[in-house]
Amino acid sequence: MKYLKTIIIIALILVSNSFLASAAVNQRVTPKIFDRPLIPTGYGEAKFLYKDFYLGCFLIDTSAVYRTPEDLLFIDAARRMEFKFITEKRMSGRAFIQQLLQSMKINNDPDALRANIANLKLFKGFFRRSIKKGDILRFDYHKRFGTRVYLNKRLIGEISDSNEFYRFILNTWLGDRPPSAKFKRGILGQNGDGYAIELQKRFDAL
């Protein structure tokens, strides 16, 4: 009888744990910008000097209609670039922004660079602290505010502009010279299913 009771108790615990896990998944909060729910297009892994640097995710308004990577750049819809840093080495804010600015320069034409000089100076001033493992950086776009930059969910700067400047930033991922070809394919959801699922799991676990 004691043995049967033990089996029943174990079974109840397993069912309970399964229910709680299912509930946790179902209660996962849908990311939003204002009232606009977002859905990821894909995930990528970026390296710096051949070492793990960050996992990236690009999200867009669930109601947006797009067919090509260029649509993602030009569409006037709520969008989010999210970086989750996995680097083992702390990087100064100055070093990080210099790296990002260099990527902007090589992925945008000279006319776009000249048009965004004032915004770039303002943008540089947002990064005053170092970047370390576990940090989360977000670049959000919405037509109501332009571009907002968050570090660990804290707003660190805003550029009130059209989506021109956001496209300038997004080109670092979707332009001709992204972190890697595999990274760009991942952001666009074009890598193999197995790799994509594994990367999504890693991203969600951070």
Main features:
206 residues, alpha+beta, Chalcone isomerase, 2 domains, 7-stranded antiparallel sheet, 8 helices, 45% helix, 25% strand, globular
How is this fold's topology laid out?
Blueprint lengths: L1 H25 L5 E2 L2 E13 L2 E11 L7 H6 L4 E7 L7 H15 L2 H6 L1 H8 L11 E7 L3 E6 L2 E6 L3 H12 L6 H7 L5 H13 L1
Antiparallel strand pairs: 1-2, 2-3, 3-4, 4-5, 5-6, 6-7
Helix pairs in contact: 3-6
Q: What do these coordinates show?
A:
By secondary structure, this protein is α+β, with helices and mostly antiparallel strands. The chain is built from 8 helices and 7 strands, in the order H-E-E-E-H-E-H-H-H-E-E-E-H-H-H. Helix 3 packs across helix 6.
